[in-house]
């Protein structure tokens, strides 16, 4: 019996729903028989558990503690090929704050209550009691893993687990926030038209900003802020930006996982930094 399966069986015996990961920390992909959940497995994805095929499909929803499933030939074969063990934090009432680098860890130490921590390849997992909405890139280098996601099992960690603080819950607040808008100033002396009102000039600037946000592969939160700052520096003082332009930028940011609140905060912080 391999090490990963031994670990998984031990966790399952303690009530932790687990699943195998292949190379690259990826779950076993959906099998053809389970495409679009035609097998009958958890179509609304609200509770963890295996589908009825019973291969380990549907990512986090395949996590299980069922010894019968573990004994099945499909799972035995999958665990033989496993490169790591994953678990469903929300399935046991937990939230993992995944900190990807030293700056993110420093932020957590300044901001969050001490709790159980687990070292990772690049940073740390801070584990709290309580569940919440999961989200990636809530801050630079910070992901939230709780409901409807899986996290890699890296050991029990150290420290006493604390209740999930409101500070962490607020990171995925999806309530729309009042949008901070650019401040219009007087037109240039002499009554001339602002050069930014040239349709091609302004359109090119907004399009480049959208592309920069959309193309971000990491540090999305930081990229959004820096892009907002650049747009405001170039176009924010003359009143040429409209709600439509700002909405385009916010839409691009939200497509990368930013919440409306984070967009509004980043815009407000950028206007403050520019003294607007």
Concise account of the structure shown:
It is built from 9 helices and 10 strands.
What's the Cα radius of gyration? 23 Å
Mean pLDDT: 79
How much beta, percentage-wise? 5-15%
How many individual helices? Answer: 9
What oligomeric arrangement do these chains adopt? Answer: single chain
Domain count, please report it: 3
Q: Stretches where pLDDT falls below 50 for ≥5 residues?
A: 41-48, 174-192
Structural class: alpha+beta
| Distance, first to last CA | 64 Å
Helix and strand succession? HEEHHEEHEEEEEEHHHHH
Largest sheet: 6 strands, mixed
Helix content, binned percent: 25-40%
Shape, per Cα inertia axes: elongated
Count every beta strand, where a strand is a DSSP E run of 2 or more residues. Answer: 10
């Amino acid at each position: 019996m391999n090490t990963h399966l031994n670990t998984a069986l031990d966790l399952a015996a303690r009530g932790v729903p687990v699943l195998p990961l292949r190379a690259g920390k990826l779950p076993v992909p959906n099998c053809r028989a389970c495409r679009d959940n035609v097998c009958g497995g958890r179509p609304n994805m609200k509770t963890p558990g295996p589908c009825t095929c019973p291969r380990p499909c549907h990512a986090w929803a395949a996590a299980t503690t069922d010894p019968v499933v573990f004994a099945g030939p499909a799972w035995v074969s999958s665990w033989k090929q496993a490169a790591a063990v994953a678990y469903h934090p929300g399935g046991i009432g937990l939230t993992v704050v995944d900190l990807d680098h030293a700056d993110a860890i420093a932020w957590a130490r300044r901001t969050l209550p001490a709790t159980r921590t687990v070292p990772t390849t690049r940073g740390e997992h801070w584990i709290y009691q309580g569940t919440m909405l999961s989200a990636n890139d809530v801050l630079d280098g910070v992901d939230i893993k709780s409901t409807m996601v899986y996290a890699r099992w890296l050991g029990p960690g150290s420290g006493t687990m604390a209740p999930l603080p409101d500070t962490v819950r607020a990171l995925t607040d999806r309530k729309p926030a009042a949008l901070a808008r650019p401040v219009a100033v007087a037109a240039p002396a002499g009554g001339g038209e602002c050069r930014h009102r040239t349709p091609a000039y302004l359109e090119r600037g907004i399009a480049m900003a959208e592309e920069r946000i959309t193309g971000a592969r990491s540090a999305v939160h930081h990229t959004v802020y820096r892009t907002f700052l650049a747009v405001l520096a170039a176009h924010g003082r003359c009143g040429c930006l409209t709600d439509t332009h700002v909405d385009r930028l916010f839409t691009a940011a939200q497509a990368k996982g930013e919440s409306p609140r984070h967009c509004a905060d980043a815009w407000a912080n950028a206007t403050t930094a520019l003294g607007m």
